[in-house]
């Protein structure tokens, strides 16, 4: 078990199976020393635990937890390409999309769920640049979607 997976276990988390693509794409691809994930939905055992817009059907707190799940799914996608999460030198960028009610402006707080998980698991290697974007709708009516870009140690 990698040090990253040991840290996940200490947090009471396990790395899930890679979420199968919903369309014509790969969950993650490597280009040189970088791995780029596709947008990861907060799927748990093949299902969305909740659907709807943040600020309407979904609370910001629920959405923050869902963003954490998205980040966990993103780490699973990275592992599927590189085999060992200990190869991560740093998380370079996180992009979070939040399906938002028209008056909801708390997207950064929601995406903090992903950022905080990456920091807990990877320490300084998890510190990253980030965008948190409000959108009208996401695939399958998911409240949150997160993608990450990581640099690998050489």
From TrEMBL:
Pfam families: YjgF_endoribonc
InterPro entries found in the cross-reference section: Endoribo_LPSP/chorism_mut-like (IPR013813), RutC-like_sf (IPR035959)
Source organism, top-level taxon: Bacteria
The Endoribonuclease L-PSP/chorismate mutase-like domain, residue ranges: 5-148
SUPFAM superfamilies, alphabetized: YjgF-like (SSF55298)
Stored PANTHER family: ENDORIBONUCLEASE L-PSP_CHORISMATE MUTASE-LIKE DOMAIN-CONTAINING PROTEIN, ENDORIBONUCLEASE-RELATED
Protein name: Enamine deaminase RidA (YjgF/YER057c/UK114 family)
Organism: Streptomyces echinatus
């Amino acid at each position: 078990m990698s040090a990253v997976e040991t840290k996940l276990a200490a947090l009471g988390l396990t790395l899930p199976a890679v979420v199968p693509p919903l369309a014509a794409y790969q969950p993650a691809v490597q280009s040189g020393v970088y791995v780029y994930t596709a947008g990861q939905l907060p799927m748990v055992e093949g299902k969305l635990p909740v659907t709807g817009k943040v600020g309407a059907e979904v609370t910001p707190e629920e959405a923050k937890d869902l963003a954490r799940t998205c980040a966990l799914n993103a780490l699973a996608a990275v592992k599927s390409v590189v085999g060992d999460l200990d190869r991560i030198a740093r998380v370079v960028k996180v992009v979070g999309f939040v399906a938002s009610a028209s008056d909801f402006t708390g997207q950064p707080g929601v995406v903090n769920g992903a950022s905080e998980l990456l920091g807990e698991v990877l320490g300084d290697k998890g510190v990253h640049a980030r965008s948190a974007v409000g959108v009208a709708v996401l695939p399958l009516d998911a409240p949150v979607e997160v993608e990450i870009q990581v640099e690998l140690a050489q």
